[in-house]
Structure of ACO12 thioesterase:
Amino acid sequence: QAYLSYSNIAALAHMASKSGWDIIKTLDNVKIWTHKEGAVLSFKVEMQVKVPSHVAFSLLSDFRLRQRWDRHFLTCEVLRAVSEEEKIYHVTAAPTTGHKPRDFVILVSQRQPCRPQEPYTVAMRSVNLRAVPPSLEFCRSEILCAGFQIHSNGSSSCTVCYFNQVTSGVMPYLAANLTGSSKSIEDTALECIKFLE
């Protein structure tokens, strides 16, 4: 359990520290980047938010609030509170055309910065839980590595970066966006900013 939590945080930090991100879209308060390494595609959404970093961290680390700004989330329930900083959630996501709704069992690990220049971190990855086996109603999908890093820009604003290593379970929600025929990433980012502010 301790190893899973550590590797969850470490994997997100590793993704965030990679060089070679390509910017694909710039809006007023949102930038979208992609990173390709072999067959691995990751994306980053950078949002400028006018709230203190600790407020953004508090709101983003409670996944039950995510339905308020992310229309892909249908339901989200806490399956197990492992500790103050780790919770396991069961999330259901809206169906994409021609597919069953998807569901995810995810470990969410949150960390406050140890030093002033470090970000707040909310990392997530899929885990297996015997109590919640895959059901016929949903297509059980996987998140390898995703999450938020929140950097303070002073007492009243912060930069929120969302990262996701794209898997086959996540790809249907992004494919149209990455080819330019949909704006769901931008729309979700703008909803997130509105929710935080």
Observations:
- The radius of gyration is 16 Å.
- The chain has one domain: 1-196.
- The chain has a mean pLDDT of 88.
